[in-house]
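Listing S7. Sequence submitted for prediction.
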Amino acid sequence: MKRFRGRRRGGAHAEFEQPEARLIANLAAQVAELLGNESSTSKPEDPLADLVDIDGSAQPPDDPVLRRLLPDAYRDDDEGAADFRRFTERGLRETKSRNAQILIESLIAGGMSEPIVADDGGDVEAPAEPRVEVELDADGAQAWLRALTDIRLALATRLGIEQDDEQRWATLPEDDPESYVHDIYDWLGYVQETLVHAID
């Protein structure tokens, strides 16, 4: 990856290798799919909610990643948190999914291609694949930042990453699958950091 560089009016530009672009796009698509999969089974509890087509659940999601992406608004007020969730969760899910889609679309627009599949079904990288050039305006940069935050939150939740636990990850064998995913988590942090500096 060639780090993000600032553009006029809050935009940014970066270049990714094809595998890097496909990795980010795949993770963004998984987050968007997760946000869209767990639909509410609760019904509106009052005529006003029915009138304005509010169908959000008052209960937090079962999936720990979704609970991290869609946290309670009030920690000490269960009733208030439930009401807030019922009126806002659907919109929040849609916004996060849209950010992920913007990220994916910008990678496609920048030249991201599908991997070549070998005769035996395995993936084969095409020789000298062109880099994926991502050009973002100010809104696109903000969507990328939010989507990267969501992806990293999802990975951190699945891996059980906690503050000040660097020693745990440093001692894992290199061939441990969790170590590999943690490296991806760290790399995405680098991508996000370069974008923050580019638009600052």
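Caption to Listing S7: primary sequence and predicted structure tokens for the chain studied. The two ends are 20 Å apart (CA to CA). The longest strand covers residues 2-6.
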